[in-house]
Amino acid sequence: MSANGLPITVEKVTADVVVVGGGGAASRAALSARQAGANVRLLTKAPLQTGGSTVHGASEIMSMGAAGFGDALDSTEIHYQDTMRAGRGFIDAALVRVLAEDAPERITDLMDLGVTLDRSGDGSLKLIRSDFGSYARALGVSGKTGKAFVTAISEALVRSGVQIDAPVMLVDLIRDADGAVAGVLGYDPARKILIHYEAPSVVMGTGGIHGVYQQQVSTSEMTGDGQAICFRHGAEMVNLEFHQVGSALIHPYVQLFSGSCFSLHPKMLNARGEEFLPSYLPDGVTVDEVYEKKQFPFTTTNVSRFLDIAMAHEIAEGRGTERGAVLFSFADVPEARIAEVMPNTARWMRDRGIDPKTDKLEVGVAFQCMNGGVRMTGADAQSSIPGLYVIGELAGGVRGPDRPGGNSLAEGQVFGHRAGTAAAERSRGAKAEKAATLEETFAMLSRAFAPRNHTLDTEAVAGKIRETMQRDCLVEKSADGLNRAIRVMSDVRSLLENDLHVSPETLLQGLSVRNMAQTSELVLRACLNRDETRSAHYRLDHPESGGEAYAHSFVMRRDGNGIEVKPLHYDTPASKAL
To answer: Which of 19, 35, 49, 569 has an alpha carbon within 20 to 30 A of 261's alpha carbon?
Structure first.
């Protein structure tokens, strides 16, 4: 059938729970909802097991933090304390408590599903002490832990009977007359049809915003769809100014460079062959000290900041390679040290025809992860929209300026499970109310399908967004740059509103660019609002911490056609925005 004169068929399906996304958090939610007895539909923009940062994330020590598998002195209480120490004032203590207490059971689930965790020579589980961790508690699978998780969970999904629709893009959230969730609208680009998923519970795990940057360590289909759509529907957004960036090999493939790689003290050159790092260091700070302190991601809390700042500045000033990188060389590092310190990274390079011992490596500054997102308001990952659960990198509430390494994978498993279980419970014996917002969505699509006098080049527009975010919202930020970038996004949004024309063949690209511009503007405005430097949020015009005046989160919410920003003090008992 067609709706409102749209030149495209709309198919309707029903489910108890709809899960949007295909990464570690979303797949866990779908499996848990199914295990709780729900009829589950999973839709994901990329084919299953191919999209999202969980699948593609890899580093020398990528792992999941969970207490109870190593030092007897470690505990879930200490895991909780470590996390709070790294983010107090910016994270919800109740959510952190749940994260620490549930993580051990979730890692046990994964082992039961067949995930083979790394072990030491004596047969015991190999544990890593990650950043901000008091003990070694992170468990992994040879640096590609997320992929191992998603593979095991996806196979269990298929066995359990979850209906998987992939690739299908999220077009919009659907709500009833009371504002609660009534389902979602998706687009199947292969069949060129819209799908109206009718469900009383929706779990959204659409991932980060990697696709809005030129250089990023995951997959480009993550264009901020979930963030933009949730914002348009009035959901609260939190900590959007905090994101993780850092050095990464950018050619011929993308590979994160963890701190262990820098402990080998590679030689770092610009495109002119000049060693540039020394010229960025203040008196009393040595190159060796910067390398020894280096960790991933970029942080201003120690002298390693000068490495990322120097790289970004050299590239911005035109002294980088044509691909936007500087050159690293490990030629002076003994082969035995490379094998000892970065065995996984060296193996991955050689598998792709790169010799880290002899080749000059193109290394840039890349986007890695959002620390903020749609605010979780409860322990089951509820959002401020009834019936909508938010998980994974889309969600905000347990990650502030800093977070312990290993927590990201743990968050996906803990809150994915909780959200899926809670969504199934909410749907038990219930059905979706009548869709009240669907006609508005159809009207938006009708405008996009309407003929125009000329065709807008959406790829060129997307390129402009990526160029702007890479330049003005990665390492070095300032009011001038952020305001310039906001004007770009505002102009792009206006252009899309007036000139976007899509066909069934180009609908996915058109909607993706629309979401890129919306989410990018939200992140830019959050960065502009925080007039201070804190961890990876580095303001050239405010290079010092703002102290108590900024020692808390900010919540953003749609206010008509504008944005309302309010402080959020997570340490208050009720965790309410003031």
So the answer is: 49
User: β-pairing, 553-559 with 237-238?
Assistant: antiparallel
* Cβ atoms of residues 391 and 29 within 8 Å: yes
Q: Is the model's pLDDT at 339 over the cut of 90? A: yes
Q: Distance between CA atoms of 290 and 278, rounded to whole angstroms?
A: 10
Q: What distance in Å separates the CA atoms of residue 414 and residue 409, rounded to the nearest whole number? A: 9
Residue 17 burial (10 A CB sphere; 0-12, 13-18, 19+) = buried
Q: How far apart are CA 23 and CA 56, in angstroms?
A: 10
Q: Two tokens at 480? A: 């001038």
Report the amino acid identity of residue 16: D
Contacts of 492 (CB under 8 A, 6+ apart): 461, 464, 465, 513, 517
More confident residue, 500 or 18: 18
Question: Quick check: 399 and 126 in contact, CB under 8 A?
Answer: no
pLDDT digits (tens, 9 = 90+) for 16-68: 999 999 999 999 999 999 999 999 999 999 988 888 877 777 776 788 999 99
Q: Which residue reads 């890349």 in tokens?
A: 366
Q: What distance in Å separates the CA atoms of residue 265 and residue 315, rounded to the nearest whole number?
A: 20
Range with lowest mean pLDDT among 40-54, 153-167, 484-498, 500-514: 40-54
Residues whose CB falls within 8 Å of the CB of residue 401, separated by 6 or more in sequence, listed in order: 87, 90, 242, 371, 534, 535, 536, 537
The predicted pLDDT at position 47 comes to 87
Cα separation, 441 vs 172, in Å, equals 7
User: pTM score, two decimals?
Assistant: 0.95
Distance of CA 451 to the CA centre of its chain: 35
Q: Measured between alpha carbons, how far is 165 from 146 in angstroms, rounded to an integer?
A: 21
**Please, what's the b/e burial string for 119-153 (b: 16 or more CB within 10 A of its CB; e: otherwise)?**
eeeeeeebbbbbbbbbbbbbbbbbbbbbbbbbbbb
Q: Compute the chain's Rg from CA coordinates.
A: 23
State which amino acid sits at residue 537: H
Place of tokens 């035109």: 318
Q: Where are the beta strands (DSSP E) in 235-316?
A: 237-238, 243-251, 255-256, 267-269
Answer yes or no: are the C-beta atoms of 396 and 423 closer than 8 Å: no
